[in-house]
Amino acid sequence: MTIISQKEKLIKAREFLTRSGVALGVGAGDALCAKLIERAGFDFIWASSLCISASYAVPDANLISMSQYCEAARSMNEVVSIPIVADCDTGYGNANNLIYAVKKFEEAGIVGISIEDKKFPKDNSLLEGGRQDLASMDEFAGKIKAAKDHQRHEEFIVIARVEALIAGWGQEEAMKRSLCYAEAGADCILMHSKSKQPDEIIEFIRQWNQPTPIVLVPTNYPSLTLQEVEKLKKVKLFIYANQPMRASVKAQEALLEEIKKSGGIHTIDPMMVPVSYIFDIQGVPEMKKNEKKYLV
Ligand code: SPV
Ligand code: MG
C-alpha cells in the first residue's frame, strides 16, 4: 500500500480546478469507506460532516468536536492516495477557531476545506425545518481571508459554501455573497441547494461570470447527471456526499432482519463479502510480504 505524499495530493487537487472536465468526489465517514471510494476509481474523498457524525450516530449539528472530525479525516487520508477535501461546517466558531482548524487539517494531510456561511452551531442543510441561520457576509468573508492567510501549503484549497438558497434568501443574495467570497480569496464557490430540481443551481451557474470554479453537491437533485454538469463548463468539483453511507445502512438493516427471520447466519452469505475480501482491503497481503522480509 504505497500512499503518495501530501504534496502530490495537493498538486493533484489543484489540477482538478484547472484541467478541463469535472472531478468526482464521494463522501465518506470513515477510512474503510474512503478506501472503497478510491478503489472504485473516484477522484477525491469528501470527508463529510454528515457521514462522520452519523458514524457516531449523533446529529450533524456540531455536536462532535473539530478534533473528532479532523481525526476521522486523518484516518481516511492515511489509507488512500487520492486527495481528501474536508467538510469543515462553519469553521467550528469564529476566524480564530478556523485558523486553528486549518493548521490541524493541513497537518492531517488534507488538501482543502469547505466552510459554509451559517452561524455556529449549524444544522445539516437538508434537514427539514432545520436552523439555517446565515452569518453576516462580512463576517464570513473575514473567515475566508483568515483561512487563506494562514494556510501553510500554497496549493491548499478553501471552498466557500454559500447557504443563501438553503436559507431561502434567493438568487440575488446567493450571487452577492458568492462575488464577495470570491473577492475575499475563496478558491471555489460551493453553491448548495435543497431544491428537488437543479433549476435554481443551473440559473446561478448561468449567471456566474467569475473565473472562480463552482462546486456542487447534488444530493437533493439527483437528476442532474455528470454529463449535464460537464456541459455547464464552470463546475470543477461534483460531490456525491453521502450515498455509500446510506446504502450501507440499508444493506446492514436487510442483513440483520434476515438473521432474525431465519434464526441463524446460515442464509446470509450472498448478502456479504467474504472475510478474505475485508483482509484485502485492510492491506493484509502487504503486511504478509513485510513479515517475509523483516520477521526472523
Ligand atoms: C455533508 O456531506 O456533510 C454535507 C453535504 O455537508 S449535505 O449533507 O448535503 O449538506
Ligand atoms: Mg456537512
Protein architecture, described:
Strand 4 (112-116), helix 6 (137-150) and strand 5 form a beta-alpha-beta unit. The chain has helices at residues 6-18, 31-39, 49-55, 66-77, 95-107, 137-150, 170-184, 199-207, 226-232, 243-262, 275-282, 284-294; strands spanning 23-28, 44-47, 84-87, 112-116, 157-162, 188-191, 214-216, 235-240. By secondary structure, the chain is an alpha/beta fold. The chain has an 8-stranded parallel β-barrel with strand order 1-2-3-4-5-6-7-8, surrounded by 10 helices.
How many distinct beta strands? Answer: 8
Ligand inventory: sulfopyruvate, magnesium ion
Structural class: alpha/beta
Strand content: 5-15%
Uncertain runs are none
Distance between the termini: 22 Å
What's the helical proportion of residues? 40-55%
Note the main sheet: 8 strands, parallel, barrel
Radius of gyration: 20 Å
Shape: globular
A few lines on this structure:
This protein is an alpha/beta fold and 296 residues long. It contains twelve helices and eight strands.
